[in-house]
Every structure is written in C-alpha cells, then in structure tokens.
Design goal:
The protein is 24% helix and 36% strand. Strand 8 and strand 9 form a beta hairpin. The chain has 6 helices and 10 strands. The longest helix has 16 residues.
C-alpha cells in the first residue's frame, strides 16, 4: 500500500473476496455464456485461483478471468472496476474445481489502473471490510441519508451546498467514497478518509462517528 492507497494486488484480492461477477475467456473457444460464468473458491499459496465453472477443459489452455465489480447500491455508472487475470487453466480435479495458474493481473477501478505479478497476488490480503462492504453501503444508503449529507461540509468549497444527492459507493479500511448526483445529471465522487486504518467491522462505527464529528465542527 502506498500511503492509504491499496496496491494493485490488494485491489484484485479484494474483488476476489467480495465475490464479484467473474467470467472465463479462452482464446479460440466460444462456449455458451452460462458456461463462461465462474465462481472463485479461493486463492492458493502460489497465487493460483481455484474456480468452479460450467466450462470443461481436457488439457492445459491459456485463459483470462475477467472480474467485474458493480456497486451494491443504485447509482449512476454502477461498474466500479474490472480486473483481468491471465494464466493457464488446468483440467478440473475430482471435485470439479478448475485451477488457473496466474501469469499476472491488471486492474482498472476507482483508484486507477495497476498491474500485479503472481507473487504479489499470493502475498496480498483483501481489504478487511471486503466481505461486509455491500451490506454496509446498502445500510448507509437506506438509513443514514442525514449523516451522509453532513459530509457536505468536508467537500471543496465550490462543491458545498450544491444540493446533489450523496450515495455511498465504496468503502474500505481507509475511508468512504461518496458519489454525488445532481438533479441536472452531474455526477462527481468525493473521498472521505478515516483518521486511521479500520481493521474490521468492529472499528468501523467509531471511525464513521469521528468522521461525522469532524464534518460538524
């Protein structure tokens, strides 16, 4: 991590942990779209991915796993990011699990673009809030509109008081990203950084309270 910016490997691992939508692409093969859908069961010690999919292969083939991350709340431009993991797909084991030996990964998301090598993927950990992020964002959007509007005070001066509707669009250990949507269709994002890294859901409530307290000063 560069400061509070997660590395490319961390961001890919977070997409994996969050069970984002994934599809397999094998050059030269055009399977049924349903067969391309994949579920990531885990990451091995060498960065290899264990996959469950309807697709069947009888020999090792090159493949690309595309992961798409969609915001769990209703908001314009819901696709938050994509990752492409390239490698070699081996036939399923007796339990029907495919193995993708990774050659590398590229990610393009709200943080920007980045690349990760297999050893970086193996060593990286997902964001501590990844598994709970969707539920937390949905709760904030449904039940805490007033608190979200209070964050307006932390926006740059030129953006304050615009009347744009705030929608929580992303959350991680270092902060909350809010997307502002105006009646005229203008959309912009704001990043509200916590005063310290949140190590899990148990610390999130206190971090959010401190952030709101700062906004109301």
């Amino acid at each position: 991590m560069d400061g509070n910016r997660p590395s490319a490997a961390q961001r890919v691992r977070t997409l994996i942990e969050a069970n984002a939508s994934a599809v397999l692409d094998i050059p030269g093969i055009d399977p049924d779209p349903l067969a391309r859908a994949a579920r990531i069961q885990g990451v091995g010690p060498g960065g290899e991915l264990l996959l469950e999919a309807g697709l069947r292969v009888t020999e090792e083939v090159t493949a690309v796993l595309e992961i798409t991350d969609v915001a769990p709340v209703a908001v314009p431009h819901r696709v938050r990011g994509r990752a492409w993991i390239t490698g070699w797909l081996t036939p399923a084991d007796e339990d029907g699990v495919l193995r993708l030996e990774t050659a590398g990964a590229t990610v393009d998301d709200l943080w920007g673009t980045g690349h990760a090598e297999p050893e970086e993927l193996a060593a990286a950990s997902p964001d501590p809030l990844a598994a709970q992020e969707a539920g937390i964002l949905q709760h904030l959007a449904a039940s805490h509109a007033e608190q979200l509007r209070a964050l307006d005070a932390l926006l740059p001066q030129e953006e304050r008081g615009s009347g744009a509707r705030p929608v929580p669009v992303a959350l991680d250990t270092s902060g909350l990203r809010v997307r502002y949507v105006s009646d005229g269709g203008r959309v912009f994002d704001a990043w509200f950084e916590f005063d310290g890294a949140v190590r899990g859901p148990a610390e999130l409530r206190a971090a959010m309270s401190r952030l709101l307290r700062t906004a109301r000063l």
